[in-house]
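Is it possible to get an amino acid sequence alongside its tokenized fold?
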Amino acid sequence: VCSSDLAGADVSAGFFTMQGGHRWKNVAWQPRIGGLFYWGSGDDDPNDGQSNTFDVLYPFGHSYWGIIDNLSGQNLLDYSIQADVKPTDRLKLVAAFHFFDRAKTSDTAYNVARVPFGAVGGSRDIGEELDLIAKYKVNKNLNVQLGYSLFWYGAFVNQNLPRDDAKQLYLMTTLQY
């Protein structure tokens, strides 16, 4: 947590993240199970001239907060469970499930562009996301990745910006030379 004085306004904001897991290397498919916890501070009073919401300067959201890239790390709690297996040396299958809440109900939620959305108060529940990913190494220079993600919007989003749940299917190739 960081505290400072910026242009006459007190700033007290921070984040914390923890990730861990275990891979079984001496069994078929080398399964791994893990978890992630992330907290980015929210503001008790966004109108008091003090900023207590953590500001993610250069968000790389899908690396941390789900592949769909719905959220920034501001005023955010992310509880995630993850698992992967390696059926072959070239193929890796990954699944991750995220539970997203607002850290403070006195502050809003923030999209991946760090833009606030929704009103203060109300539910903490932003939603849940499931990510399913297959990574295939064609050769030492070419990788192919296929992914599918679902985001089920929670009470906070449905109260403020009702919308259909998000779905995403993608195919990505990486060529290294």
The radius of gyration is 19 Å. Residues 155-160 form the longest helix (6 residues).
